[in-house]
Amino acid sequence: MKTTFFSIVVILGAVIFSCTTKPKESSMASKELKISLAEWSIHNALKEGTLKADDFPFIATEYGIHAVEYVNQFYKDHATDEAYWKKMRAKTDSLGVRNLLIMCDDEGDLGNPDPAERKKAVENHYKWVDAAAILGCHSIRINAFGDGTREQVQAAMVDALKQLCTYAATKNINVIIENHGLYSSDGTWTAEIMKQVAMPNVGTLPDFGNWCLSEKWGSTQDGKPCSKVYDRYQGVSDMLPYARGVSAKSYKFDEKGNETIIDYARLIDIVKKSDFDGYVGIEYEGSDLSEHDGIVATKKLLEKVWGGK
């Protein structure tokens, strides 16, 4: 066949096109699944006393997990105990466990429109920033709650985060918002806060659950459906550009091991197609399975859908 200048250009164009598109596909396919364990997955056992918070890092290793996310309510007595956190850091180092973040609750509303109360809430979080720094965590997770209009609470959160992030920056710690109900479960609302704060150590922790706009904590406490719910798939997409972690919430499983409330395959596909390259934290919150079995089921499901099976 006679080769012309035109045919050479077409062939070269095809080669260049294939070279520029294939790496993107293989990069997505080869993105590593990094699993962590959120302490809330064993909150019932911790409250009952059958498991101890001091042993949480070791408990995680029993599932083959070597990264952990703490919940501050189980360490209230040790909040400012520097020696305790150094001892915990030494324990995790010996186990080969990485400390990722501390989830902080009940330290006041950072979205409080009252400046004095808001400042108090900000300062209440300082001790957890300090603890996270000793542990070698990358973040503390905060809540975006406050009584007021959508605009009032958003403005208050922007101010509070600028204050808290300024302090956290001195400790090399990020401050991240989780969708946890009310305004915080509106992905566009939270994303707008990220844009307005615009500091390098502010971010998000998108949770697969917790999309109830009418209740705190992202769900009703009596088990009834929420009166107003944000689309979870849109919400995760809204928050992923700012994510420092992802919380793989799970509730119920069918006989094939699939989550019956959340389309895991769809959400994992969204995560894999994003620029996020951090840890995906298991957070089982169901009642049909024991906490142990729920963690195992969630881990198996994550591994299955991540591998495209």
Protein topology:
Blueprint: H1 5-30, E1 35-38, H2 43-48, H3 56-61, E2 67-71, H4 82-95, E3 98-103, H5 115-124, H6 126-135, E4 139-142, H7 150-169, E5 174-178, H8 187-197, E6 202-205, H9 232-239, E7 246-250, H10 264-273, E8 280-284, H11 291-306
Parallel strand pairs: 1-2, 1-8, 2-3, 3-4, 4-5, 5-6, 7-8
Helix pairs in contact: 5-7, 7-8, 8-9, 10-11
Question: Which labels suit this protein?
Answer:
single chain, 309 residues, alpha/beta, TIM Barrel, eight-stranded parallel beta sheet, 8 strands, 44% helix, disordered N terminus
Q: Can you walk me through this structure?
A:
With 309 residues, the chain is α/β, with parallel strands linked by helices. It has one domain: TIM Barrel, CATH 3.20.20. It contains eleven helices and eight strands. The protein has helices at residues 5-30, 43-48, 56-61, 82-95, 115-124, 126-135, 150-169, 187-197, 232-239, 264-273, 291-306; strands spanning 35-38, 67-71, 98-103, 139-142, 174-178, 202-205, 246-250, 280-284. Strands 6-5-4-3-2-1-8-7 form an eight-stranded parallel sheet. The longest helix has 26 residues, at 5-30.
Q: From the alpha-carbon coordinates, what is the Rg to the nearest angstrom?
A: 21 Å
Overall mean pLDDT: 91
Could you say what the CATH architecture is? Alpha-Beta Barrel
Number of helices: 11
Helix fraction by DSSP (H/I, runs of at least 4): 40-55%
Major sheet: 8 strands, parallel
What proportion of the residues form beta strands (DSSP E)? 5-15%
| Total discrete domains | 1
Q: What's the N-to-C terminus distance?
A: 45 Å
Low-confidence residue ranges: 1-27
Corresponding CATH superfamily:
Divalent-metal-dependent TIM barrel enzymes
Please tell me what the overall shape is: globular
- Along the chain, the helix and strand elements come as HEHHEHEHHEHEHEHEHEH
The count of DSSP E runs of length 2 or more, i.e. the number of strands, is: 8
Structural class: alpha/beta
CATH topology: TIM Barrel
Strand order of the largest sheet: 6-5-4-3-2-1-8-7
What's the CATH first level? Alpha Beta
